[in-house]
TrEMBL record:
May be an activator protein for the gylABX operon. InterPro entries: GAF-like_dom_sf, HTH_MetabolicPath_Reg, Tscrpt_reg_IclR_C, Tscrpt_reg_IclR_N, WH-like_DNA-bd_sf, WH_DNA-bd_sf. PROSITE patterns: HTH_ICLR, ICLR_ED. Residues 244-276 are annotated as: Disordered. Residues 4-66 form the HTH iclR-type domain. GO terms for molecular function: DNA binding; DNA-binding transcription factor activity. This is Glycerol operon regulatory protein. The keyword rRNA processing does not apply. Residues 67-250 form the IclR-ED domain. Coiled coil: none annotated. The lineage of its organism: Bacteria, Bacillati, Actinomycetota, Actinomycetes, Propionibacteriales. The keyword Signal does not apply. Pfam families: HTH_IclR, IclR_C.
Length: 276
């Protein structure tokens, strides 16, 4: 808990609401944010007065308000994470000779916010602004592997949340948990043909000062093209993710989580524009 508990709880609620596709109930908010129901209600009431939250009394649900949109628009204009990542991502492409991208979690999808194409490499579907199911992508899996169990359950409440593109990938929460446990054990995420047949990706999460995953750095390459070079690709991706994490004052490694831990206790983040 930070030095200002009320502010920390408020930001926690905002972040949870931002991951939901639709307004949610008070009980769901209290449960996901580990708050007493009465505390969650008082926080939400104050946030309604400031315009960050709207209350839908007929549905007994709460969602993001206009003020939250204004904050998000301001972030889009400044794009600090993209600015920090642009040069390191270009240098990563130069080192490995494959295309690379940076993606952030957007609900149960990943949103691609930065991409560097390697000359002569095949075109990718992961262009800037494209959204793909997080559980199918390497960058999404790298981020999901660092989320707490409650947030993962909220993102994937039913089997219908597990869409596929080519008939492959996890189709249940239990299958996803197994995949993410393997990801944490390896220290990086992998995807092979689940987004685009014939292409594979490896990714590592970018962590903030609370070890919360802000984004995933990934490299995509033709399956079989990496050959015995896969270990070097992973090392270079981890090097780039570690550099960005340091600039955000986060841990320098997104490797295997300590035993018994499946991610940070609660999702909290702050972008710090520490100069390179």
């Amino acid at each position: 808990m930070g030095q200002v508990p009320a502010a920390t709880r408020t930001l926690r609620v905002l972040r949870y609401l931002a991951t939901q596709a639709d307004p949610v109930s008070l009980d769901a908010i209290a449960r996901a944010c580990a708050l007493p129901r009465s505390s969650a209600y008082h926080l939400l009431t104050a946030m309604v007065e400031e315009g960050f939250v709207v209350h839908l009394p007929d549905e007994h649900r709460w969602g993001l308000g206009v003020a939250a949109f204004e904050v998000g628009s301001g972030y889009s204009r400044q794009a600090p994470l993209q600015r920090l990542a642009r040069r390191p991502l270009a240098e990563l492409v130069d080192r490995v000779g494959h295309s690379a991208h940076l993606a952030v979690l957007h609900g149960s999808d990943v949103l691609y916010v930065l991409e560097e194409r390697a000359p002569g490499r095949p075109p990718l579907v992961s262009d800037v602004g494209v959204r793909l199911p997080a559980h199918l992508t390497a960058s999404g899996r790298a981020v999901l592997a660092h989320l707490p169990p409650a947030q993962l359950r909220a993102l994937y409440p039913a089997a219908s949340a597990f869409v596929t593109r080519h008939g492959t990938g996890p189709t249940s929460l239990s299958a996803l948990r197994v995949l993410l446990a393997e990801t944490r054990q390896r220290g990086h995420a992998e995807e092979r043909g689940e987004v685009t047949p014939g292409l594979a990706s490896v990714a590592v999460a970018v962590l903030d000062h609370n070890a919360h995953p802000l984004a995933g750095v990934a490299v995509t390459f033709p399956e079989g093209d990496a050959g015995g070079d896969l270990e070097r690709l992973v090392t270079e991706v981890a090097r780039t993710a570690g550099l960005l994490s340091r600039r955000l004052r986060g841990p320098t490694s997104a490797g295997p989580a300590p035993r018994g831990r499946t991610g940070p206790k609660l999702p909290r983040s702050r972008i710090s524009l520490t100069p390179p």
